[in-house]
Amino acid sequence: MSEPTPAEKPAAPVRPVPIKVGMFGGQGSGKSTTAALLAAALSKEVYGGAPVMVCDTEAGWPFLKRRIFDVEGIELHQRNEVSFKAMCASLREGEKLGCCLWVVDQLSRIWMELLKTFRGTKGFIAIDQWGSIRELWAEYVEAHFLNSPMSCIALGRVGAITEEIEDERDPAKTRLVNLGTKFKAGGSESFGYEPHLLLELSIERKARRRAGVKLEGEGRITHRADCLKDRTWVLNGAVLRWSDKSGYQPRGYLQVWQSLKPHFDEVQAVMRQGTVTPGSSASLVSPNGDSEYYQRRKRRDVLVEELDAGMQLLWGGQGQAERRLRTLAGEALFGVRSKTALAELELEAVESGVKILHAFEKRVKAEGMPTTEAAVLHMLQGEIDAWKQAAAEEAGVPF
User: Fold this and answer.
1) Could you tell me if 106 and 181 lie in one domain?
2) CB-CB neighbours of 104 under 10 Å
3) Half-sphere exposure of 307 toward its Cβ, with a 13 Å CA cutoff?
4) DSSP strands (E only) in the chain
5) Alpha-carbon distance 267 to 219, whole Å?
6) Domain containing residue 140
């Protein structure tokens, strides 16, 4: 008689690929509630009711716990300390507690706390501290938010994207142009670059009518989500809408879940097709970080900050005259007008500009700031010409 065939060992359950979502919008746009509904949906529909962790900076999640998580029987861990350090600790704690998802509400407040910490009692952030701030922030983005085994949702406030450009009606003037909105956290760069799915939330109100008369201030509220970015492409550019509800019933998250599930499904399909092999560029950078590339990049970043600080010191403020002088000074020094163009300059050009500006500052301290715009630019041009002459005579002398 043949021996019985041993039972096949059951395959280990496949852990879902976590999704990384960013949501931002104005006050009352529904960020917290939408995040809570998505969190509840992932917990119940994907992770078998696993707990959720939230870093709550505004003490708004106790209401969501009662209305949504208690109804669904989902354990919600809440941490309410408003600090960058506490936020990172809550994410690590959530992983240890077996949470399926982590939420930070709001990341914009955490960013402001981090800046306040570095500012300290001095009232300003020293130029050489910006490197440390960026390193801490990058560590959060890469090591925690993006690489955590939990799904992550970051909520933030809306910020304006502006650019100072030449006024078409008067080339001698400049004006600020609003180019759109962004997720306000992380400094000059929007945090919206980091998540795989980025949603801008807002509300729409459809006015009620009574006997054919529109009743202003009354009506049905609809929550709107504009998908500004979806790395999977399935929701890119989509506009999603969810009706506002006065109460919550079990599985009340379905409307949000069904709208966003195509992104989740595509993440599972795409990111299971292969793995990313860890690599290193250590051969390009010496162990103590003193490679030529590292030093040039670090020095350039510091000099750009110093240049901006010098401009603010000489012509600070947001008045039209001050903004115009900063723009014209930048054009005289570098031949460019916008901060975007300045950010693309080579190290050597920035070095020269900072050196000239320092010389100009010394002259202003000795002689006083000229009283007219033309006189200011004439004095600055004098320092530019002097620098060019000295550079031509002493070519190769390092700054």
Assistant:
1) yes
2) 28
3) 25
4) 20-25, 52-56, 76-79, 101-105, 151-166, 174-183, 197-210, 213-230, 239-243
5) 37
6) 20-270
Residue 202 and residue 136 in one domain? yes
Nearest-angstrom CA–CA distance, 51 and 94: 9
204 and 64, same domain (yes or no): yes
pLDDT digits (tens, 9 = 90+) for 222-266: 899 999 889 999 999 999 999 888 889 999 999 999 999 999 999
333/352 Cα distance (integer angstroms): 9
Q: What are the residues facing 157 on neighbouring strands?
A: 25
Per-residue pLDDT of 20-74, as tens digits, reads: 999 988 888 889 999 999 999 999 999 999 999 999 998 889 999 999 999 999 9
- Classify residue 118: in a domain, yes or no: yes
Q: Looking at the structure, do residues 104 and 27 belong to the same domain, yes or no?
A: yes
Q: How many domains does the chain have?
A: 2
Q: Which position has the token pair 């050009």?
A: 349
DSSP 175-234: EEEEEEEEE--STTS-GGGSSSEEEEEEEEEEEEEETTEEEEEEEEEEEEEEEEEETTST
Q: Is residue 7 in some structural domain?
A: no
260 and 299 together in one domain: no
Asked if residue 219 is part of any domain, the answer here is yes
Q: How far apart are CA 20 and CA 195, in angstroms?
A: 5
Handedness of CA 131, 135, 136, 138 (dihedral sign): positive
